[in-house]
Amino acid sequence: MSHAERPAFGVYVHWPFCLSKCPYCDFNSHVRHAPIDEDRFVRAFTREIETTAARVPGREVSSIFLGGGTPSLMQPRTVGGVLDAIGKYWSVAPDVEVTLEANPTSVEATRFRGYRTAGVNRVSLGVQALDDASLKALGRLHTAREALDAVAIARSAFDRYSFDLIYARPDQTPQMWAGELKQAISEAAEHLSLYQLTIEEGTPFFGLHAAGKLKTPDEATSRALYDVTQEVCALEGLPAYEISNHARPGAECRHNLVYWRGEEYAGIGPGAHGRLDIDGVRHATATDKRPEAWLSKVEERGHGVMTDDSLNSEERADEFLLMGLRLAEGIDPGRYAKLSGRELDPRRIAMLREEGAIDVDADGRLRVTKSGFPVLDAVVADLAA
């Protein structure tokens, strides 16, 4: 079987710890003031990998993603231990993509060479902004200069690297953002993840926003910022391949494509989600979010899985639609029909085409258009109805 025909299989590993909690973040991240027992975690990761591999044996791992939290707080030997375990219980593709999320601080950049030696071949840096006032407001512990120095170290240590920026920040104008974005692209080379700041319930920003102390751009400005993002990136050769992700053709994050194309992946570590195909049924798995509770569960029974739901054909098809339409490449409606047992409604398709929200290719692929992307949720809801 050629590489193209072999189904992708990803492994996501969650490192749940951070030095401090960013005020906009609603991810499963925890601050601990005592040192973390990394050896104990490696043993637990290894055990959960073994148990998961027993459920889905014989897979070839095409991508690995170490996310968090802040995986760059791990010692390189911890990362090496996790990668060794994956290689022990599954086979790993010779061209596997191994991404590690890192904070762009000078301390963490000193570990980059060690990660490279451990087997990481791509880093994703949480830069978030390129001006110090914004970084401070976002609760980041690095300066713009420090971030760019870390990017330079990443560039020398890895062939592939990417970084994240948050836009639609308080007081940000489209002009300011265009300048920042051009600077980012000159540093980023092949891949950027660009997210609009969203105010999530349960975060410090939520309270500030509700009290009127944090003003985010209005709808018109947000839309202008989105449009600037698309224009600048396309012009500079990094078109959007997914609604928030931009890459030079061929430099897309293969692991993230696993999610958006509805492929199979294992979720390892506290609060990790997985999608596993067992006897023709897709299972949606999620592990205990609390790091210490996850540890003791894994030590007791070999895994920290708290939910393991079998998705019916309807749920499976809806998820495929929801994820796939985020991609510029769109979806194959035939695959939707195969999953759900029914075709997408041709009248709805015709209507959305008329409105200019979707396109249908000569080969039948269905794609959301440039003008459809800003209202993606409405388009998906319409098609899924």
Fold and architecture overview:
It is a single chain. By secondary structure, the chain is of the alpha/beta class. 41% of the residues lie in helices and 23% in strands. The protein is built from 15 helices and 16 strands. The protein has helices at residues 38-55, 76-89, 106-109, 112-118, 132-137, 144-157, 174-188, 204-210, 219-235, 254-260, 291-301, 313-324, 333-340, 346-354, 376-384, and strands at 9-15, 17-18, 30-31, 60-68, 91-102, 122-128, 160-167, 191-196, 240-242, 245-247, 264-268, 273-278, 281-287, 305-310, 358-360, 366-368. The strands form four sheets. Strands 9-10-8-7-6-5-4-1-11 form a nine-stranded mixed β-sheet, with helices on both faces. The protein is globular.
Helix-strand layout with pairing:
Layout: E1 9-15, E2 17-18, E3 30-31, H1 38-55, E4 60-68, H2 76-89, E5 91-102, H3 106-109, H4 112-118, E6 122-128, H5 132-137, H6 144-157, E7 160-167, H7 174-188, E8 191-196, H8 204-210, H9 219-235, E9 240-242, E10 245-247, H10 254-260, E11 264-268, E12 273-278, E13 281-287, H11 291-301, E14 305-310, H12 313-324, H13 333-340, H14 346-354, E15 358-360, E16 366-368, H15 376-384
Parallel strand pairs: 1-4, 1-11, 2-3, 4-5, 5-6, 6-7, 7-8
Antiparallel strand pairs: 8-10, 9-10, 12-13, 13-14, 15-16
